[in-house]
Amino acid sequence: MSILIKKRDGVLSGVSHPFFVLVPALALGFCNNALARDFFDPDFIKSVGQSDPSSIPDLSLYATKDAQAPGEYRIDVVLNNNLQETTDIQFVEKKDPTTGALKLVPCLSIAKLTSYGLRSEAFPHLKEDTNGCADVSGIPNFTTDFNFNTQQLLISIPQAALSTIAQGFVPPEEFDDGINALLTNYQFSSGKDYEANNEYYNLNLQSGLNIGPWRLRNLSTWNKSAGIQSDWDSVYLYAQRSIIPLKSTLVMGESSSLSSIFDSVPFTGIQLATDTDMIPESLRGFAPIVRGIARTNARVVIKQNGYQIYQAFVAPGAFEITDLYSTGGNGDLYVTVEEADGSRQNFVVPYASLPLMLREGQVEYEITSGKYRPYDGDVDEKPFTQATISYGVLSNTTFYTGLQAASSYQALALGVGQNLGDIGAVSADVTEAWSKKKDMDKTTGQSWRIRYGKNILETGTNITVAGYRYSTSGFNTLTDVMNTYNNRYGSYTSRSLRNRTNITVNQSLGSGLGSLSVSGIFEDYWDSNRRNNSFNIGYNGGFRRFNYYAGYSYSRYSWGDSGSNRTVEDDHVVSFNITVPLGDWIPNTYATYNVTNSSPGSTDQYVSLSGVALENHNLDWNVQQGYSNREDASGGVYSNYRGSMGSINGGYSYSKHSQLINYGMSGGVLLHADGITLGQEMSETAVLVKAPGLDNVRLENDVSITTDYRGYAIIPYVTPYHRTSVTLDNTTLSDNMELPNTTQKVVPTRAAIVRANFEGNIGRRAFLILKRTSGDYVPYGATVTLTTDKNAQASIVSDGGMVYMSGLKDNGEIYARWGTKSGQQCKATYSLAATTEGIAQATAVCR
User: Fold this and answer.
1) Which of 300, 320, 349 is the last residue in one of the domains?
2) Is 617 left (phi over 0), alpha (psi -120 to 50) or beta?
3) Using an 8 Å Cβ cutoff, are 58 and 797 in contact?
4) Is residue 240 part of a domain?
5) What confidence tier does 53 reach under pLDDT thresholds 50, 70, 90?
6) Kind of pairing, strands 71-79 and 152-156?
7) Fewest C-beta atoms under 10 Å: which of 109, 447, 524, 539?
8) What spatial distance separates the first Cα and last Cα of the chain, rounded to whole Å?
9) Whose CA is closest to 636, among 657, 617, 619, 661?
10) Which residue range or ranges hold the PapC N-terminal domain (predicted)?
């Protein structure tokens, strides 16, 4: 067998010729049958030309398979084949009690093991050493395996030693209240109509202040039109914070009550309510508990509507699965228990749900107290209190109740939701109300409500919500009563709702045949002939790459007394829409045609071209031309650009009676301890990326976002109480940047601004060839660091004294070490040639 090693100029130019003698020597060394295990003798390195005994490196750390140097590694922690987290773990050197060989083991504290689900209380002898590392030798069958190539720590813990942890559970200790910051979201829009000679301006400012766990929020608006004085208005102002032990949120100020049982009521006061985002996603909403018995160590597979939604491994005996994700819909659960001997058990658990239903043992509540906050400034701000609670009593049953109390209004509600299995899910509740409107007698009334939902898999029918409410003539809502206390209009009386029916049905027509949707709302009122009826039917379909929609809607509104004073309005609308992709000719472009006919005899039709442009698809554009039998031609052009520091938009439109030019901009401004960062509009919870020196680096979370000139960026939307990975795209790093860890994980609390810190090596990259004063190369396996930062991650010398390093200045000093003796370490001063591209090369003498 012949071995050909091609020597390339530059990279291997410093490799000594004895290196080629080393290859067969290594091969012969590893064939020594006298050894009980693989062993590499460092004397081989000496034998290829190094005369100084001190040049033999200490490689005992690498003498066993897969061994590495101790230290801190950023790795994926995988427990029983499930990824737990990506984090920094300290690894220490330890002797294997069986072989006596050195091996690398993770230093895991008892708290860390507990966060992974270990029932630490079951092992009273579990202790930590002086470095905080738990001695896991007393846990039966506990094993760890560090795969350096994949950067994974594989942990195996017997199921009996683990507590039951819901899917998606995040320990509260990881919740991050974020940084102190001042923030503002802005939305500005303006337009000028040249035909009507009118201009308008609008500005929305959503401002906030975060201090520790507290958040202060305000929304203010400014409007200005030609000839009309500008107007500022504050929509709301409130302070809030998370109460983690109660899984709740506290709000003080201007907000609105929840609408699960009663209609939502605006208030100024205080509110404490369950924050369902603190609950693991697999425990939110309603899902039945799946119970069964396994004869052996078994695998449990659960499917719904033909899709696998859950898998678990259980020990012999009775099992209980409580952490199924709520699918928000309906469809029986098909459960298969696959035993170790290959046999199977199959059974069905009926499943149907409605939004207000909770799983067994789950509680949601709300307490609100304050003053009514009317939108009309002439209405009295009367005090009231509202309290509601929902409780999952049994696996398929939810009870809920609530009360409202004010000087002129009291109400009590009581209801139940039930999973009826094959029949579907139904809820029924009644609200008794005692009310007194201004200048009127007291009244008493009831409101009955029934809701139903069902998914019929066999026919593809999904009845998402069907509801019916009946209210007696004396029933009023809290808002109905509060609005009568109006100081301008005197005794104001709203019409009371009598009947309301609503239904939404979606029907799949089979593979390739599209879907049909039907919805309707029908209302009538007491003491008037007012009726509101609306009905919609629509069909969605597709043929190859074409998508089309056809729909019909009907609405009738009537009011006034019977006879000649009664007014009736009927409206019929028929529409058709088809979209055709033009990607074969124009990338990322679509053509759309739409026609709408509405009574009485009005027809509108238009054709448009729309699409996205630029490398990151952050430019949206649309060109439209239309025709109406009322106003002749109309058309317009519109575009919107989303960048790292915000969005800008502009457009032009015309019709028979107008020529309008409009433009606008939106974004977010964040003031923090390190300065000011601009970005897109921030949602309730956001992330500040801090990567000093890493400018113009793209984020994988949103390719339209890049770091600014200082290395900062804003990720405007993340989910609270949920692990979010923040990742920088290392393909966008420039030549003078290197990022050891491209991903950070954050777990923000509600409305927090959390910081994701990245530390990159900023500077030159180079291959350095290190020689000693004797002329020999610095030995293979030596570790090299900058003298200015000896604790930084070390580089390792390869053959011929070559080492790769990053984050270098043009001139500097490095420190090399290959043992503990004084003759096994040295310092070298290097100097890199003036170049701006690629990887530099230099030779340095180590003294």
Assistant:
1) 349
2) left
3) no
4) no
5) low
6) parallel
7) 109
8) 41
9) 661
10) 40-189
Q: Answer whether 430's CB lies under 8 Å from 413's CB.
A: yes
| 108 in a structural domain | yes
Tokens of 266: 């605006």
Q: What confidence score (pLDDT) does residue 409 get?
A: 96
| Integer Cα distance of 780 and 769 in angstroms | 11
In a domain? residue 178: no
User: Which tokens is 249 given?
Assistant: 């949120």
Half-sphere exposure of 379 (CA within 13 A, CB side): 20
In this structure, is residue 833 part of a structural domain? Answer: yes
On the 0-12 / 13-18 / 19+ scale of CB atoms within 10 A, 99 is: exposed
- The CATH number of the domain holding residue 107 is 3.10.20.410
CA distance 512 to 507: 13
- Residue whose tokens read 């170790």: 340
* CA proximity to 841, closest of 3, 58, 14, 2: 14
**Token pair listed for 180:** 């102190």
Ranges 20-29, 306-315, 595-604, most confident: 595-604
The amino acid at residue 465 is V
Q: What are the pLDDT digits (tens) for 759-780?
A: 888 888 899 999 998 889 999 8
Rg (CA), the chain: 35
Which tokens go with 30? 């590893």
What range defines the domain where residue 124 resides? 71-163
pTM above 0.90, yes or no: no
3-state SS, 639-689, equals EEEEECCEEEEEEEEEECCEEEEEEEEEEEEEEECCEEEEECCCCCCEEEE
Sorted by sequence, the CB contacts under 8 Å of residue 13 that are 6+ apart come out as 7, 841
What's the rounded Cα separation, in Å, for the pair 607 and 592? 6
| Per-residue pLDDT tens digits for 311-341 | 887 767 778 788 787 765 567 788 999 888 8
Instruction: Find the CATH number of the domain harbouring 824.
Output: 2.60.40.2070
Query: CA-to-CA distance for 592 and 582, rounded, in angstroms?
Result: 10
Q: What is the pLDDT at residue 341? A: 83
Distance CA 152, CA 133 (A): 19
Q: How far apart, in whole angstroms, are the C-alpha atoms of residue 39 and residue 19? A: 19
For residue 165, give the nearest of 251, 73, 82, 237 by alpha carbon: 82
From 334, 349, 364, the end of a domain falls on 349
- Picking from 49-63, 261-275, 438-452, 717-731, which range would have the lowest pLDDT averaged per residue? 49-63
CB distance 476 to 496 below 8 Å: yes
DSSP state string for 446-509: EEEEEEEEEEETTTTEEEEEEEEEEE-TT---HHHHHTTEETTTEE--PPPEEEEEEEEEEEE-
- CA 312, distance to chain mean position in Å, is 24
Q: Do residues 223 and 230 touch, judged by C-beta distance below 8 A?
A: yes
Counting the structural domains of the chain, the total is 3
How far apart are alpha carbons 539 and 578 in whole angstroms? 12
The answer to whether the beta carbons of residues 261 and 402 sit under 8 Å apart is: yes
**Which amino acid, one-letter code, is at 758?**
F
pLDDT of residue 42 exceeding 70, the answer is: no
Average of per-residue pLDDT across 653-678 = 93
CB burial readout 192-207, b (16+ within 10 A) else e:
bbeeeeeebbebbbbb
Going by C-beta distance under 8 Å and a sequence separation of 6 or more, which residues neighbour residue 262? 386, 388, 402, 404, 411, 413, 431, 477, 478
Q: At 53, phi and psi to the nearest 5?
A: -60, -30
Peptide bond into 383 cis (omega under 30): no
Six token digits for residue 414: 């009581």
Residue-wise pLDDT for 714-754, tens only, equals 999 999 999 899 999 989 988 888 888 888 989 999 999 99
